[in-house]
Amino acid sequence: TSIEKQLVDLGKQMISFTASDGAKAVVRILAAQATNFPELAQDAYREGWLRAVQSIAALLDRMGEKGLARI
């Protein structure tokens, strides 16, 4: 499959996960507890969504360096 299709599929998976009932419940819990445990919300963001985005960015950088994608 093409790089474009792989990225679109990955994006769909990320959206599907973040729109799931379980993910929404975790977000509600984190929001409710943010004042008591601000580091918990920060860690969840850093280890969740941000980590995924950084991984995709690194992958795109490597593809660009190899000439597989123009970014």
Give structural notes.
The protein is built from four helices and no strands. With 71 residues, it is mainly α. Helix 3 runs parallel beside helix 4. The protein starts with a helix and ends in a 6-residue tail after the last helix. The relative contact order is 0.09.
Write the layout of secondary structure elements.
Layout (H helix, E strand, L loop, with lengths): L2 H16 L2 H13 L4 H10 L1 H17 L6
Features:
elongated; 71 residues; 79% helix; mainly alpha
Largest sheet: none
Task: Summarize model confidence as the mean pLDDT.
Answer: 88
The end-to-end span amounts to 19 Å
Number of strands: 0
Number of helices: 4
Which residue ranges are poorly predicted, with pLDDT under 50 across at least 5 consecutive positions?
none
> What structural category do the secondary elements indicate?
mainly alpha
- What is the N-to-C succession of helices and strands? HHHH
Helix content: over 70%
The best one-word shape is elongated
Rg to the nearest angstrom? 16 Å
Strand content: under 5%
